[in-house]
Amino acid sequence: MNTHQAFRSIDLRTWKRAAGMAAKAGIIAALLLTASAPAQSPPSIALRSAATFGVLAGVSVTSTGATVIEGDLGVSPGSSISGSPIVSGSIHAGDGIAAQAQLDATTAYDDAASRSVTASLSGNIGGQTLLRGVYKSGSSMELSSGDLTLDAQGDSSAVFIFLMASTLTTSTTCQLLLVNGAKASNVFWQVGTSAVLGSTALFSGTILAATSITMTTGALLDGRALARGGSVTMDANTILPVELVSLRASLETRGVRLLWRTATEKNNYGFEIERSVETMGAPSATQAWERIGFQAGNGTSSIPCSYEFLDAGILSMRDVLAASYRLRQIDRDGTQTFSPVVVVQLAPLSASPVLHVPHPNPCNTGATVSIFLAEKGNVTLTVHSIQGAEILRLCNGDYLEAGTHSYSCDLSAMPSDIFFVRLVQGETTRHQKLVVFR
């Protein structure tokens, strides 16, 4: 019985007699304070090696659309990964690292199941505000009407654990709101069978499912999707604190202007703007990334938000060939995520074409290759193994206008190795090294 239930069960006559016998009002105040105090927070669930995975499946992972995963992607004991999600960490398909993560995820699943229950819930749990504790359903849980709010009451270490014997389902556009210090890293969902997140739903926490996890189109998960015995299926999803949908950079008379837009935000503290430059003395290499500014975020938002930043300082730098920009998104709990890189051409060395350093490099499953053409003409852009064999053709003698052109380079089927990108325009050939590391 929780403290609120205990308070309500006190007999009214007994309460009046106790109040009448009290010589000081402070005694009554103390009784009231004790009755309304929140329950002690349960210990967190230790994920061990599974903590680095944004997505982990037992049989397979399927991704369609523009899915972004913060952290590692793994499958074990299966090894099937289809689609080309953007993964910030490493990919482990049927290897020993994924196998150990599955063992640790199972331990975490069993740990959650063994916890003492604070209160029982079932059916639709939307429209409620819950405090820290362990909540259990003998059947299923769903968010089908109304948002679910988890209130940490100012305690950033507050833990919320949800246990259900069967399914977890969220409806389209439903939200899970974290308030007063609640953190996604302290929310856990132990699912007896499978979980389904509805289209464009905003959800938080680590999902530990016995079978499978399905994220329908546009659903956002601030946490982890860990499926023990089945598959994880994604469709244009974001497993990321902030869903960045666009980032553009353009050269103006006052400097380089950056414009970016988020579809949704969860506990977003803000964005650090970072820059790296290529100089005329070393056009084949970039300098280290440096912080040039900061833009505050909008916290938690379910509507699109737009930002802009002007890099006026770039115009005072000498001998700069090109500038690369990226955003370091910082969550309120300190979690950090990098955006894709955008490149702005400032001053070509000559009329010759320029092949920029690929980003990211080293890469995991793919990279972006950007070129600058001082003059229009036919261009061939290819990727070669270190032995010289062509493995990918990005541009097949196409006639391109002068300016900057970018191409996505999919290397998900390639092993860890060193590759070379080759640009040919007329009599000019340029090369850049590209490292694939898993």
Explain what the structure shows:
The protein is mainly beta and about 450 residues long. It has 4 domains: about 5-35, no CATH class; about 50-240, no CATH class; about 240-345, Immunoglobulin-like; about 350-438, Sandwich (Immunoglobulin-like). Helix content is about 10%, strand content about 50%. The strands form 6 sheets. Strands 1, 3, 4, 6, 7, 8, 11, 14, 17, 19, 21 and 23 form a 12-stranded parallel sheet that branches. Strands 5-2-22-20-18-15-12-9 form an 8-stranded parallel sheet, with no helix packed on it. Strands 24, 25, 26, 27, 28, 29 and 30 form a 7-stranded antiparallel sheet that branches. Strand 28 (about 320-330) and strand 29 (about 335-340) form a beta hairpin.
Describe this structure in a few short sentences.
The chain has 438 residues and is mainly β. It has 4 domains: 3-36, no CATH class; 48-239, no CATH class; 242-347, Immunoglobulin-like (Sandwich), CATH 2.60.40; 349-438, Macroglobulin (MG2) domain (Immunoglobulin-like). It has 4 helices and 37 strands.
For the structure shown, list the relevant keywords.
Immunoglobulin-like; 438 residues; mainly beta; eight-stranded parallel β-sheet; 4 helices
Write the layout of secondary structure elements.
Blueprint: H1 3-8, H2 12-21, H3 25-36, E1 53-57, E2 60-64, E3 68-69, E4 72-75, E5 80-82, E6 86-87, E7 91-93, H4 96-113, E8 119-120, E9 123-124, E10 129-131, E11 133-137, E12 141-143, E13 148-151, E14 160-164, E15 168-170, E16 176-179, E17 187-191, E18 195-197, E19 202-209, E20 213-215, E21 220-227, E22 231-235, E23 238-239, E24 242-252, E25 255-279, E26 290-301, E27 305-311, E28 320-331, E29 336-338, E30 342-345, E31 354-355, E32 366-373, E33 377-385, E34 390-400, E35 403-410, E36 417-425, E37 428-436
